[in-house]
């Protein structure tokens, strides 16, 4: 703690005398008058939000980063499923024989039965069983520490732009 700060502390409180633009001081006075709050209470609340990183802007950036990661995972999964489907169709065309009209009727009955079994299997897997995409390697986009660093960087750049 510096000597200037230690001299101004009385009863657990420090006196700060920041200089702000007149327009900002007027806005502070208007807010205090409309909410029946003191300037000290409003400034303390604003400082806590800013220093604790709990401002709406910070929380919004975190939420957007989480949503962005979820969208990237969805795009990756859709791409993987599209490729898997394309390979399946190629294999099916390569191995599905051409049938005569007589064979088509029995093939349709057999196909209907096999399709119902397929749907049961998919329903079982979808309702809690292992998933196809779960078998694939996962790609990490960012963890919470990286997101915090991004937020800190963006807060620092916004502070610099506000000072100029």
Search tags:
rod-shaped, 6 helices, mainly alpha, single chain, 164 residues
What does this structure look like?
The chain is mainly alpha-helical and 164 residues long. 73% of the residues lie in helices and 2% in strands. The protein is built from six helices and two strands, in the order H-E-E-H-H-H-H-H. The chain has a two-stranded antiparallel ribbon with strand order 1-2. Helix 4 (56-95) crosses helix 6. The longest helix has 40 residues, at 56-95. The protein is rod-shaped and about 95 Å long.
Low-confidence stretches: none
Q: How far from one another are the termini? A: 28 Å
Class computed from helices, strands and strand pairing: mainly alpha
- Describe the biggest sheet? 2 strands, antiparallel
Which sequence of SSEs, written as H and E, runs from N to C?
Answer: HEEHHHHH
Helix content: over 70%
How much is the average pLDDT?
Answer: 80
Layout: helices, strands, pairs:
Elements: H1 3-8, E1 9-10, E2 13-14, H2 22-35, H3 39-52, H4 56-95, H5 101-126, H6 144-163
Antiparallel strand pairs: 1-2
Concise summary:
The chain is mostly helical. It contains six helices and two strands. Helix 4 (56-95) crosses helix 6.
């Amino acid at each position: 703690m510096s000597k200037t700060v230690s001299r101004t502390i009385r009863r657990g409180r420090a006196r700060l005398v920041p200089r702000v633009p007149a327009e900002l001081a007027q806005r502070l006075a208007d807010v205090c008058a409309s909410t029946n709050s003191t300037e000290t209470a409003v400034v303390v609340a604003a400082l806590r939000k800013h220093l604790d990183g709990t401002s709406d802007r910070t929380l919004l950036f975190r939420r957007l980063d989480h949503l962005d990661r979820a969208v990237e995972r969805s795009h990756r999964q859709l791409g993987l499923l599209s490729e898997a489907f394309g390979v399946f169709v190629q294999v099916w065309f390569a191995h599905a024989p051409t049938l005569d009209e007589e064979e088509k009727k029995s093939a349709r009955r057999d196909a209907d039965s096999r399709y119902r079994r397929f749907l049961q299997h998919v329903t079982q897997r979808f309702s809690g069983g292992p998933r196809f995409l779960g078998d694939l390697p996962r790609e990490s986009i960012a963890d919470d520490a990286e997101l915090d660093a991004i937020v800190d960087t963006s807060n620092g750049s916004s502070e610099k732009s506000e000072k100029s």
